[in-house]
Amino acid sequence: MITPQQFKQSWESVADDHLVAFPADSLSDVHLSPEVRTFLIDAGLPTDAAPFLNFGPPKSGSLARASVVWHQPSELDRYRIIGGNGSGDPVCLDEEAGGQVVYLNHDNRFERVLMASSVPVLAECLLQLRDAIASAGGNAELIGPAQFEALVARFRAIDPLPSGDGGYWQRELQSFQKPPSKAWWRFWK
Known about the structure:
With about 190 residues, the chain is of the alpha+beta class. Helices cover about 35% and strands about 15% of the residues.
């Protein structure tokens, strides 16, 4: 598993890629393992990362509860917001599941979608994706089939559950692949 220092060094080796650390007081009342707490304080997470993710601590105080921000029932108290995705869904730490990283699909009654089993595992996945996109010239759609399969295999080795069939990473990675194009004359058949 990647350490906070390894992640920080790797992520910030690219000129415009920045991490934002989470102040200790933003995590003071959040139920997390010491490993996750240290990772967020010492390295943090990217301000922006593929696939359309952003992260950051609150301006003051501790991480907000999804139930409070989204005016939802107390069943969502366990989710502490650390960022968001491109659809406007909150990306959260699940306090009752050992700090798993999830997003809550606000278009589907706040369905819980597992993104990573922990913050360090999420960090590894984000690095893998960034490097794959960079090797494709900065365009995710240019990741070739062989590179795509290798990337999927790496994600499954890093975190099997959200990378398996129907999981978050499988869906996200597949969205980068262009569907096979049909010749124009086949549309009339």
